[in-house]
Amino acid sequence: MQAMASLAPNPMEAALAEMTLDEVEALAVTRLQDAGAVAAQAGPVARSIRLAERDGVRSHGLMYLPIYAEHLACGKVDGRAVPQLSQSRAGVLLVDAAHGFAHPAIDLGLPALLAAARAQGIAAMTLHRSYNCGILGHHAERIAEAGLIGLCFTHAPASIAPVGGRVPVIGTNPFALAVPDGAGGVPFVLDQSASVVAKSEVILRGRKGEALPEGWALDREGRPTTDPDAALRGSMLPSGGAKGFGAGLMVEVLASVLSGAVASRDASPFSGPAGGPPATGQCFIAIDPAAFAPEFGPRILALAQAIEAQEGARLPGARRKAARSRTARAGVMVDDALAERIRLQKN
């Protein structure tokens, strides 16, 4: 493929059209540092942008870079934050993200979480005074790559009303599960939100001027809407009705209440400059399968094979894995509108 011009002198002056993943990451680091982030904050976030583009999840890739930069500039994220790690009990890790990005705070606590889980069989880590952690499944996958079961939860500013209501009280509140196969592989990663679709997808449709499919959202009055702006002022619909709201409520308990983070209904938005730091939270649980079931790996592989053997069926995360190979061949395409947004913020 024809790579874009070298980013080394000034990545913002390059013609953004076709990029390698290295160029995506370098651009993200540069833009975040320009906006006020120190290297320790910018690096992990830039890597998350790279991984989102690698997996074809564009809503969490370069599309989010101008939002990150805006939040650094307006003070919703402290680009110089130094996260702090403490351990209240043998299997309990606590991380104060200090209103910085979630990614460096997660990086700080993850090695201790893995060590505690191996020693105890199971361990948990919570984060508070945190921020959007990007694609939750990537964090669960890191735990599984280390040979442990990763179960992760993150809440978000309120955007889902209870079934029968119209005032949002919980966020889209994703949860993720990643499992090891006992031989260094990760057979599947389940990553889903409590809503029918991630809120970032609604934002993306709005920027493109596209209508939403029916069944995604309600307006402020509780009426079904296909207008992205009306949806953002109203409520996302929970996946599966009351069951989806229940899943989101579970995440709220673990990622917000248990972590000591602000409630979703009180958190400032992850988009736009309004409000101070969101101060949201996460909860990560790591489980050592060897402490429970020595034959976990073969049994997980048998389960995965039973799913894949059926025509038309696929494992959770299969599309993202397929996108990785496509991205390796073709690189990342950046449309003119996004390129202009990044350039304008630079200037």
Task: Record the SSE blueprint.
Layout: E1 18-19, H1 21-34, H2 39-54, H3 65-74, E2 84-89, E3 92-96, H4 102-120, E4 122-130, H5 136-145, E5 149-154, E6 175-179, E7 188-192, H6 199-208, E8 217-218, E9 224-225, H7 228-233, E10 235-236, H8 242-257, E11 280-287, H9 296-308, H10 318-330, E12 332-333, H11 336-346
Distance between the termini: 29 Å
Beta-strand content estimate: 15-25%
Taking pLDDT < 50 over at least 5 consecutive residues as the criterion, the unreliable ranges are: 1-16
With strands numbered from the N-terminus, the spatial order across the biggest sheet is 2-3-4-11-5-6-7
Q: Largest sheet, described in full? A: 7 strands, mixed
Question: How many strand units?
Answer: 12
What is the element string, with H for helices and E for strands?
A: EHHHEEHEHEEEHEEHEHEHHEH
Structural class: alpha+beta
Number of helices: 11
Shape: globular
Radius of gyration: 20 Å
* Share of residues in helices: 25-40%
Mean pLDDT: 92
Short description:
The protein has 347 residues and is α+β, with helices and mostly antiparallel strands. The longest helix is centred in the N-terminal third of the chain and has 19 residues. Strand 6 and strand 7 form a beta hairpin.
Describe this structure as you would to a colleague.
The chain is α+β, with helices and mostly antiparallel strands and about 350 residues long. It contains 11 helices and 12 strands. It has helices at about 20-35, 40-55, 65-75, 100-120, 135-145, 200-210, 230-235, 240-255, 295-310, 320-330, 335-345, and strands at about 20, 85-90, 90-95, 120-130, 150-155, 175-180, 190, 215-220, 225, 235, 280-285, 330-335. The strands form 3 sheets. The chain has a 7-stranded mixed sheet with strand order 2-3-4-11-5-6-7, with helices on both faces. Strand 3 (about 90-95), helix 4 (about 100-120) and strand 4 form a beta-alpha-beta unit. Helix 1 (about 20-35) runs antiparallel to helix 2. The longest helix has 19 residues, at about 100-120. The protein is globular. The relative contact order is 0.15. Residues about 1-15 have low confidence and may be disordered.
